[in-house]
Amino acid sequence: MSDDHPTTTPDENGGSNTDSDGDADRLTHTTDDGDVQMVDVGDKPDTSRRAVAAGEIRLQPSTLEAIRDDRIGKGDVLSTARIGAIQAVKHTWETIPMCHQIPITNVDTDFSLENDHVALEVAVETTGKTGCEMEALEGVTTGLNVVWDMVKAVEKDEDGQYPATGIENVRVLEKEKRPASE
Fold this sequence. Notes:
The protein is α+β, with helices and mostly antiparallel strands. Helices cover 27% and strands 30% of the residues.
């Protein structure tokens, strides 16, 4: 393989990608004229798909202790954040342009309280024609935003700012797809 001739491979949306050194020869969310379009996945077979995303929200130690002891005035932080994460997964198609509405078959949320942050993993499963990575990412970001909303009164400093608070390291941990018959 030379740098002058990048390798082109089909992507999972039916378009193609080039290797990391070349430009994409066909962008799947634009027409030949450069107009935005939704990718047509109608001819793709249904497959079982799963994606797991994760992220953290950095908080003050006193806030983490208050979450552990269920002393946050707005209520149970992690239960509320779990509901928010699941709702976000189910509504991803409404907030991400060109994202397909997919049948969600399962959502798992896993929160853990660490020394300086709350970690969240969201696993999403579907059987369909396109993946569920965006749904997993939306679940993580919304779940962490709900944590922030629930604890903001105790996270603020004397000037009403949030110098110790931050959502970080949001990423897709894994994705898999297999024929729907498995």
